[in-house]
Amino acid sequence: MTEFETKENFADLLDEVFGSANSLEGSVIEGRVITIENDFAVIDVGLKAEGRVALKEFAAPGQKSELKPGDIVEVYLERMENAMGEAVISREKARREEAWTILERAFEKGQRVEGVIFGRVKGGFTVDLSGAVAFLPGSQVDVRPVRDITPLMGVPQPFQILKMDRRRGNIVVSRRAVLEETRAEARSELVANLKEGQILEGVVKNITDYGAFVDLGGVDGLLHVTDIAWRRVNHPSEALTIGQTVKVQVIRVNPETQRISLGMKQLLADPWDGVGVKYPMGVKFLGRVTNITDYGAFVELEPGVEGLVHVSEMSWTKKNVHPGKIVSTSQEVEVMVLEVDANKRRISLGLKQCLENPWSAFAAMHPQNTEIEGEVKNITEFGLFIGLDGGVDGMVHLSDLDWNRPGEQAIQDFKKGDIVRAQVLDVDVEKERISLGIKQLGRDPLANSNEVRKGSVVTGTVVEVNEGGVEVAIGDEGVRGFIRRADLARDRQDQRPERFSVGDKIDAKITNVDRATRKLALSIKAREIEEEKEAVAQYGSSDSGASLGDILGAAMSRARAKADAEGDEE
User: Fold this and answer.
1) Which of 73, 424, 503, 537 is 20 to 30 A from 458 in CA distance terms?
2) How many CB atoms lie under 10 A from the CB of residue 550?
3) In sequence order, what are the beta bridge partners of 298?
4) Nearest residue to 311 (alpha-carbon basis) of 290, 331, 297
């Protein structure tokens, strides 16, 4: 063998030895623990190479390593030799490589994997999956938000792999998916065994404005706020606390939606049993105001039994006022039972019925025709409202303001705040109405005047002239009468309104008195005809041949002569 051949064979041998060694880099190999030095294990990986691995890589997070000399372990060979002549090996990377292979198979099959939450990162937590580090988003920790995750850290538990990328080394897992699947299985089994009326024990898991969720052992049921107690519960937190153990009854179970409705008050005696006997109509009771609404106030007569005082039954005099201005929450009040409907669980109560009716009191103190005094509270298109004793109001209708003037004109004499006197005309306690009159304080010119009657001749003053006739005022009372155009004169040519002027004095006969409308119908024509008949009867007849002028002339001459004679005697 030549020297050249010997060198060539030696080179092949080196390539065979070191070439095979170099091919092991980046793979998992077996090694034997030679010794334990401080916190490191010295491991012989063969090929005349030794390496050091930290002991913590051989233990689970938070636990102590039980490695001892002589143990055979698998490590990851990163490099055959470093600057110090030692092999660069890692137990953690070996476990990671092994874990990735197992995890990929589990991910493909959709199987759960076991892991341990060991750290916090932005947006979530880190999970050790037998060497592989995965990311657990905060939203995937539990079915509901968890405030404190400390009890879950360091505890082996199942996870579901949502996404993994070996090239980038990314794994995303979910604990929530496992819980939802487990809860769904438990829920289906539990819901299938639940029956309405069944009594169970549960733990309050969450409280909302409308009720509380109770854990029945893997499945949650809703305890609505109206089913917590027979009495009014404004918010579930008034009666329940999170973590409290409660006894509930199953009210409804929906197998399709798997919703469970629970109740607590159903386990207690119904206070509405026999409510009609306990609270008879017309009897007064003491109660406490529990709630105030726009339409009234709810009064608790006993725990679980409430009645409504409608706004119309709260005050005799305060109308269109919010109930909150009459009573306040938690106030103790005396009420009267007005109506009881046990089937609908309704009791109608009255607050004002426990107080004196001011309308009855006013009627007793101020009988009909009594004169009263009050302040004008309001002026409307149909009359005046006057404030009276006891907080009640009386109304003076337009027609009762003045005997002669129209109400629309007479009401202009009054303004809000004026103190006026009036007469009580009528008190209707049931309808809560008091009718007053101002004109009744004075004399009715139509009722008391002897002159103002049908057939009498009166003297009036022209106050208005129009095409239809003439309006006149009669006497000091100011009674108005109207003379139609056709009644202005006997002769047609004189039936002209323009013959008269405002202020003229006119003698006319009353032909009609309408006391309802307070209008007089007058006629000059009827007066002239009546005077003619009287003259004919006294001084002549139509058969004598004398003319009307002669008769009237003779009558007038005799009247003057009679007047002159009377003057001489005086």
Assistant:
1) 537
2) 13
3) 291, 308
4) 297
